Amino acid sequence: MKKILLLILFLTFALTASAATLSISPAIKTVSVGDTFTVDIVLDTGGTDIDGVDVFYLNSNPSLLQPISLSPSNALSITIFNSVDKATGKIGLSQIPNGGTLFRGKATIGIVTLKALAEGTANLTFNFTPGSTSDSNVASNGSDLLTSVTNGSVTINATGVSTPPAPTPTPSPSLSGGGGGGGGGGGGSFSGAQSPKITPPVIPPSAIPPVVAPNHTPSKVIGIGWNLFLGARGGDVIVLQNFLVKQGYLTSDNTTGFFGSATEAAVKKFQTAYGIVSKGTPSTTGFGAVGPSTKAKINALLGVSIPTVITPISPTVTPSTPVIAGYLSKNLSFGSKDQSVAILQNFLVKQGYLSADLATGFFGYSTEAAVKKFQKDNAITASGFVGSATRAAINKLLK
Helix, strand or coil for residue 342? Predict the structure, then answer.
């Protein structure tokens, strides 16, 4: 019986330890119309090491409460996505730890600045589906550890409404009594001043000092800098999707920041219409992926020029992304996205297994195929999964 109880306690602790949460702090707030204020986005990993966190998305009602800016903290070192859409009220954030490290603990990952526009109650709600990595999630080894979220609620009062001052206490009554002889008692009378009626002062709106917003200029992405394909997410994907909507290849409800099947189909239509490519697959011809040619065409139509960072790896290979030094300290698989993936991809480029324009920091189909080729050439089971045996082989060559 004791063994069963111990097992139950152990399982309960294990489940509790892996219960990550996202919350708004403070969860309840009262402000006035015209106020500019901040709330925190708080991550608690529940005592578990994590690879990254995504807030896709935090939503407000923009007619009542307008998001102004999002300031990421440095709790997780690398911010790969930071987005505030004032028109729709969508706020997005994606962060990962520094290369080869994990994060554990409770911390504020972002500070949201908001402005109250009209009276009412406005909610701040996370898009959240347990176990899904396509909305708000806390990632660990390819799984979503996020078990619950705490949304926020903001009550917005009319401008000039102030909290009445506390009423002045009624004066304590005084007691007066007649003297009495030895064993006798005297008569007494009660008298006390009546407290005046208190009328709270009315403060005219003109007397209220204006609220000054924080000195923060939100970053603005004006073009596409990275190669993109199925499974990618981030600011460049938002730029791509907004472009495809304006061009009529994608509907506006698909501007999610995630490169899914609808975005891939829209990219194919664009590529066909402009004679870039019209057949094949993303990994063979680039059909459905945003590679150098498609990216250049889109940026040209957007009227922007995105410089390419070039770092030579060898006299014959020139990648479109910088080489990242380091070694692989954790397992990687399809869907991973962090500094370790960048190290892996640059290694595969140097070894001739991967094209330089596919070193995006996201572990997609092309990276998986390249890993399989490397594994086959090194007598490792060609699974596409970068486990301990594959990491050891790669790290040996990285030395």
Answer: helix
